[in-house]
């Protein structure tokens, strides 16, 4: 039995490589698995922990001063999430593409709770913004949310202030998977003159738990995309997306193409997965994977997770 969790913390880390090595030694000894990024600006982790070693994990992690008060977000649906441990040193824990020395990422917007998020959604004068990529919002998002059609967080930060230029005084609530992107985005929007920006505390993951535990109305439709082997957690009962292969049957199940040199991420329905045996196309099924630089594969290439 394993506990799948995620956590992040914006905090100053003087020597990311040293912290990375310390974490790897500790987590490897505890047989933890996952994907963790360490940078001068903090830590971003998605991982799982053997249930019987949870207490040791929490104690040892909190013994590291910078991570003493991190908040863990527990998976909504538990199944195999990661198969090995990877910890990498990055320039930033949330790649933003920003180069503005006057920007203070610590000057974030206020938090909103799950109940308050519902109030934003019900308020016709408020704006709810999805700070995730389009392949994430495609399978699940909040009712009436603004859904930028982007492929990266840095791309969204570059356009979101222009897209909402006429909403600078409107109440705005941002959301993302676990909170790391919308927290930084709220600071960026405040920096760009937006006066009333908030962000959903703990992201969709905590919202889903609040729906279950507090009995509030669920205004999230579909699945929450997650960056591990599961690809998604069911939050709403609806299936709001369609198969990328036939473009007809409803589906929100993601697959990686069975041709390892392709590995494109796509949504497939049961019929197409059976017909193509897990491949994203007939060429891949025939052992002739498409050149991922060709235009006809752009649809899939944009959904590759970088593996």
What does this structure look like?
Helix content is 28%, strand content 21%. The chain contains ten helices and 14 strands. It has helices at residues 16-29, 54-62, 114-122, 134-137, 153-163, 180-191, 203-214, 270-276, 282-285, 298-301, and strands at 2-10, 33-39, 42-50, 73-74, 85-89, 110-112, 127-130, 140-142, 172-175, 197-200, 220-225, 232-234, 254-256, 265-267. The strands form four sheets. Strands 4-1-3-2-5 form a five-stranded mixed β-sheet, with helices on one face. Strands 6-10-9-7 form a four-stranded parallel β-sheet. Helix 5 (153-163) runs parallel beside helix 6 (180-191). It is globular, with a radius of gyration of 20 Å.
Labels describing this entry:
307 residues; alpha/beta; Alpha-Beta Plaits; Oxidized Rhodanese, domain 1; 3 domains; five-stranded mixed sheet; four-stranded parallel sheet; 10 helices; 14 strands; 21% strand
* Count of domains: 3
The CATH class of the largest domain is Alpha Beta
Strand segment count: 14
CATH topology of the largest domain: Oxidized Rhodanese, domain 1
Please tell me what the overall shape is. globular
Unreliable runs = 292-307
Tell me which CATH architecture of the largest domain applies here.
3-Layer(aba) Sandwich
Helix content: 25-40%
